Amino acid sequence: MLLQKRATLDRQGKWWVWVLPLLLILGLFYLYPILSIFRLSFTDSRVGNPNFSYTLSSYKAVLTDVTLWRVLKVTLIFSLSSVFFQLFLGLITALLIKKDLFGAGLVKLSMVFAWVVPGIITGIMWQMIYSSNSWGILNYVIQKLGFSAVPFLSDPVLALTAAIIANVWRGTGFSGIMQYAALCAIPNELYESAKIDGASAWQSFWAITLPQLKPMLMINVVLITIYSFNTYDSIYALTRGGPGGSTTVISLQAYESVFSYLQLGRGSVYAIFMTLLSVVFTLIYIRLLDSEEK
Questions:
Q1: I need a labelling partner for 72 at 20 to 30 A (CA). Which of 103, 197, 220, 268 fits?
Q2: What confidence tens digit (pLDDT) does each residue in 89-106 have?
Q3: What is the mean pLDDT of the chain?
Q4: Cα(110)–Cα(202) distance, rounded to whole angstroms?
């Protein structure tokens, strides 16, 4: 007994041994890159050129470039639309699965499949669906019905809509899985009591389901917002940011600045703006969640 107590005290005194590996991983793969990007944003650094100076020229160039405001507009439209539809469709899907209808198992499998598919594969797959070429699946069906081919990827408005749909398809599974887990945690007694009191299914949804789901909904919104702001791989594979920059979100602009134009300083500035947007929206959602709890 004494030896066991002493061993417990030894473990408690060396708690840092268990935390140290986690801190090293977080510092090496998260904290250091963030600090490096912050430092490089205050330089005129270019890829392949070791000589650079500390200056605000990168911030000035980005802030005075009309491209920034177009990119921010596209990013907000893409992200907010993706968040709304992922949340809405995820909730509907979760409610239908909870009813254990025929094919619910197949729907669950499809949700997981859409979630784990890499963004590049998602973009290529949807490009095959949207393409105006002879192998474009959607236009093939449209033409067979007697209509003209639709320029999904060459029209600015349609291209952005197509990118949003592809991102919603990919993210709805994750949103639906989280909301399905929250639905399963709601006690059935609440619904039975409401039914005894004469409440309709719609009244039970508003009085029981939504209030019980609010904490998970807020967490879900935060995660898919950050995810949408950081999306670039599926858009890059689908449209390359075109036509005419109509689908260039801020993450893709940061990528293009560094790897296409070799402007490491300006790319870091875009990355900083992307991080700030994610932080701002996260703080807004947290504030809303706190106000709901009070």
A1: 220
A2: 999 888 888 887 777 777
A3: 85
A4: 28
Sign of the dihedral defined by the CA atoms of residues 34, 39, 45, 50, in that order:
negative
- Per-residue confidence (pLDDT) for residue 4, from 0 to 100: 56
Its pTM stands at: 0.85
3-state secondary structure the chain: CHHHHHHHHHHHHCCHHHHHHHHHHHHHHHHHHHHHHHHHCCECCECCECCCCECCHHHHHHHCCHHHHHHHHHHHHHHHHHHHHHHHHHHHHHHHHHCCCCCHHHHHHHHHHHHHCCHHHHHHHHHHHHCCCCCCHHHHHHHHCCCCCCCCCCCHHHHHHHHHHHHHHHHHHHHHHHHHHHHHCCCHHHHHHHHHCCCCHHHHHHHHHHHHHHHHHHHHHHHHHHHHHCCCHHHHHHCCCCCCCCCCCHHHHHHHHHHCCCCHHHHHHHHHHHHHHHHHHHHHHHHHHHHHHC
AA identity, residue 181 = A
Return all residues near 158 (Cβ < 8 A) that are at least 6 apart: 150, 151, 152
Torsion sign across C-alpha atoms 227, 232, 235, 237: negative
Q: Hey, which residues does 172 pair with through a beta bridge?
A: none
Which distant-in-sequence residues (6+ apart) come within 8 Å of 289 by Cβ? 214, 215, 218
Rounded Cα distance, 89 and 15, in Å: 44
What the chain holds in terms of domains, given with CATH numbers, is: 61-293 (1.10.3720.10)
